[in-house]
Amino acid sequence: MNPNPAGSPQHYPAGGPSPYATQPGPYAQPQPPVPAPAGRGKVATALLLVSTVLMGLMAGLFFAFDVSVMPGLAAGDERTYVTAMQNFNSAIDGNGIFGMAFVLALLLSAASAVVEFRGGRRNVAVWVGVAAVVYLVVLMITFSVNIPLNNELADAGDASKLTDFSIVDKFKGTWVSTNIVRTLLCTAALTALSRALVLYGRATR
Predict the structure, then answer these.
(1) What is the pLDDT at residue 82?
(2) Which of 129, 135, 121, 116 is nearest to 189 (CA)?
């Protein structure tokens, strides 16, 4: 016996799928993700790109000291060493562009990680976050080791009047070693940001 005779209205469970709804076939193509608003995409792109550039600049600065500045100074006499390093430190400390790059490399990387996480690109956010944490270690080393040594060198005064050059030994040992560590860490952070750029490009393609 037909439980639904002709002409009788059919009833379906509330909230259930309609039998007349088009069902995807076995060869249906997946729908592309809804793109983020253009403004947000531009901000995310800019943050990631600028963070990468700044990190590259910092890695390059530390690397230049490793391979040319410090070995060149070590080949000369101690008075020249002190005078040159005092001049280098004074020039860097008074350079606003360096100060912005030094700080913004961390701030923009952290901001980029937050933006990527909120945008649903978790894998990108992880790599950017790693870069920010690694660079934070660089800053900690700088403020705890390199800057105190720079200040001690500045307090030594006129190199032509110095008789105790023990500060030079500290630079040749501790300062040079920690700068190599800073170079390696910055390079690692730059690598992480580069990986994030690749993943970001794939996610937004």
Answers:
(1) 94
(2) 135
Cα distances (angstroms) measured from residue 143 to each of 101, 126, 136: 16, 26, 11
> Do residues 135 and 189 touch, judged by C-beta distance below 8 A?
yes
Q: How many residues does the chain have?
A: 205
Q: How high is the mean pLDDT of the chain?
A: 87
Q: How do residues 184-198 score in pLDDT, each as one tens digit?
A: 999 999 999 999 999
In sequence order, what are the residues at sequence separation of 6 or more whose Cβ sits closer than 8 angstroms to the Cβ of residue 133? none
Please name which of 135, 166, 170 lies closest in space to residue 61, comparing C-alpha atoms.
135
Q: Which residues contact 145 (CB under 8 A, 6 or more apart)?
A: 174, 175, 178
In which band, very low, low, confident or very high, does the pLDDT at 34 lie, cut at 50, 70 and 90? very low
Whether residue 79 contacts residue 73, with contact meaning beta carbons closer than 8 Å, is answered with no
CB atoms within 10 A of CB 153: 21
Residues 149 and 171 sit within 8 Å (Cβ to Cβ): yes
Q: What are the tokens at 13?
A: 């469970």
Q: How far is the C-alpha of 148 from the C-alpha of 13, rounded, in Å?
A: 75
Among candidate residues 75, 85, 65, 88, the one with its CA nearest the CA of residue 180: 65
Q: Which of 163, 165, 161 is nearest to 152 (CA)?
A: 165
Q: For the segment 163-190, what is each residue's pLDDT rounded down to a tens digit?
A: 888 999 999 999 999 999 999 999 999 9
